[in-house]
Design goal:
The chain has seven helices and 14 strands.
Length: 335
Amino acid sequence: NGQTEEQMAETLKFMLEDEQLHSAFNKLAIELNSRNEIPAGSEAQGFELNIVNATWGQTGFEFMQAFLDVLAENYDAGIRLLDYEKDPEACRQTINDWVYEQTNGRIEDLIPEGAIDEMTRLVLTNAIYFNAAWLHQFDEDYTYDDTFYLPDGSTVTVPMMHQSERFSYVDGDGYTAVELLYDIYEMSMVIIMPDEGNFSEFENSLSSETVAGIIDEMSLGQVNLTMPKFEFESEFNLNDALKAMGMPEAFSGSADFSGITDKADLIISDVIHKAFVSVDEEGTEAAAATAVIFRETSMPIEIADVNINNSFIFLIKDITTGSTLFIGRVINPAA
């Protein structure tokens, strides 16, 4: 409530009133989960999208009923009771095991040792798992080692995939972008490669409006596409980033989470995020999980050559809703 709520809403760009906001997230979750309903006769190859939430509360601790109702009704996240006071390590393992299962084994040990202790009262978790095949798959016979250019001007040799096909793309002012559809047609990966030597400046200026503008500028054409195979895992503690973005009070002793409980003073102790992405000739596998831990005081055919041989930014998005499920950057695909 109060300034804590205002800071969080501003930082996270929540512009709707609470009831409308929760309803919008619920409708979005239903829409995205409907992507798993592959029509009969579709040639989609084993598409999977799993988006889940869970709430892990201290047994015997009194949470506001309205808070629990919102989680259950809009986020399918009914309370699960654990005893942090008695055995915080066992609680950590229980939550990590749930994340591991929901992400098909791709996110291990989301919450590190020591992040949960006897004063932990609530952990909110979100997990997402995505696996999809390209509409136009790459032929492994045309994958070979080639040069990839890093932002500092150095180079690495990595496996580069090649194909010639019709893609939406744009050769813009200061960047090149291409969109690769997955075989369910309703989702895609958008790759945006800033011009050589301009990665940091471009990345720092990137916004949702910029991305939307780039996508709007794309047009369908014949493309000789070259891009790297890559796989990486990343892990972040988001505390400092969220404070810097404008919500420091949630992490301080002046935090007001009276909408969660009126029986104790809570603060956010940690916001932890881990992600996994793998891209190869067949498609994409990706997973991510976040934990928010609360403790007491988360015409002639023109053929374009698109060679993704510099560091780039990528997004996996739902086309109908425009929702971005994953966003990342590849500085060095050989790392």
